From TrEMBL:
Protein name: Group 1 truncated hemoglobin
Pfam family, one: Bac_globin
One Gene Ontology MF term: oxygen binding
Keywords: Heme, Iron, Metal-binding, Signal, Transport
Length: 123
């Protein structure tokens, strides 16, 4: 038998270098966006970048353990509504398109993030 372990989503996005390209494209999208940029006005971009990469690496079953604040702790008080949440997802999709992540892999990534919706919206 020559079975090998199935590829993790982390591997499918191109491991650390792929994640960095994705998150840089996402940050670039947010920076040019009129709808959600205002949430990030006070944000330290390099802290956000590092934290978002490590969180995604963890969620996509890569070799990282995200040790930052919880999704609820981070987003409490931002009052993010459904529309703005969906808009952020659109920007993430645009970033995934930009770096060439295939649609099946995009859908697998979105499925991992979808359950976090209720920890982020209107809290
Ligand atoms: C599934 C969706 C989301 C995930 C997984 C997520 C994840 C994260 C993570 C991991 C961080 C921390 C980065 C760090 O360590 O600094 C963060 C910060 C942040 N998130 Fe989200 N987020 C999501 C949706 C959103 C949405 C929809 C908005 C606003 C429209 C938003 C606004 C922010 C802001 C403004 C910060 C920075 C907070 C600061 O300045 O300290 N997030 N997010």
């Amino acid at each position: 038998a020559c079975q090998s372990a199935p590829q993790s989503l982390y591997q499918k996005v191109g491991e650390q270098a792929g994640l960095e390209r994705l998150v840089d494209a996402f940050i670039n999208q947010i920076g040019q966006d009129k709808v959600i940029f205002h949430y990030f006005k006070q944000t330290n971009v390099s802290h956000f970048r590092a934290g978002f990469i490590s969180h995604l690496c963890d969620v996509l079953d890569g070799p990282c353990q995200y040790d930052g604040d919880s999704m609820v702790q981070i987003h409490t008080g931002m009052n993010i509504n459904e529309h703005d949440f969906n808009h952020a997802v659109e920007l993430l999709i645009a970033a995934m398109d930009e770096v060439g992540i295939t649609h099946p892999v995009q859908n697998q990534i979105l499925a991992k993030l979808a359950p976090m919706r209720s920890e982020i919206i209107k809290i």
